[in-house]
Amino acid sequence: MPSLLLVVFVLQLALHLLNNVGASSVNQLLWVLYNKLPTPTAAGAKKQTIAKREVIRLKREMAGISAQDDFARWAKVRRQHDKAVADFEKIDASLRTAQNTFNTTLTTVRWVSTTGLRYTLQFWYTKRALFWIPRGWVPGYVEWILAFPRAPRGSISINVWDVACASCVALVSEVVLAVWALAAK
């Protein structure tokens, strides 16, 4: 079993990355990968792609025809375009519903595996000392704060360690972004 110190740090790092990369970007990537697999929505996604290409093709063809000079041909292409758009919208609506369900499921799994796990760990190990500080290094009231809420006095609680890890991850992230920005110029 990995150390609880390491588990809390990795969990904070994962939370920071998810919050900064963006959950919607991750959801969109996973949705595309999900549709590449043999899933119930994969056929609908292929139909949607084909329908979208057909709409674009008909729109370009319609734009290439003069409505005044060749009205009959333009009207025929226009009717085909309107039918293709209606078919595309119908397929798109059903896929949007499936994608919303997929996103809701992913959001729930993400919350349970990150924030829910963090809260569970904090509740479960609230009375456990993660590590001890030597006696006399800090005043008594600081020992009480570091052990907050219920860890033994003179120790570091999981809640304080969680806050420290979150702060360190945020600081390192800011440093990396600043170095990246300076190097890009």
UniProtKB/TrEMBL annotation:
HAMAP family: Get1. One of its GO terms (molecular function) is protein-membrane adaptor activity. GO terms for cellular component: endoplasmic reticulum membrane; GET complex. Belongs to the WRB/GET1 family. It is found in: Endoplasmic reticulum membrane. Residues 1-23 form the signal peptide. It is a multi-pass membrane protein. It comes from Lophium mytilinum. InterPro entries: Get1, Get1_fungi, Helix_hairpin_bin_sf. The keyword Transmembrane helix applies. The keyword Glycoprotein does not apply. GO terms for biological process: tail-anchored membrane protein insertion into ER membrane. The lineage of its organism: Eukaryota, Fungi, Dikarya, Ascomycota, Pezizomycotina. Pfam families: CHD5. This is Guided entry of tail-anchored proteins 1. Keywords: Coiled coil, Endoplasmic reticulum, Membrane, Signal, Transmembrane, Transmembrane helix, Transport. Its main location: endoplasmic reticulum.
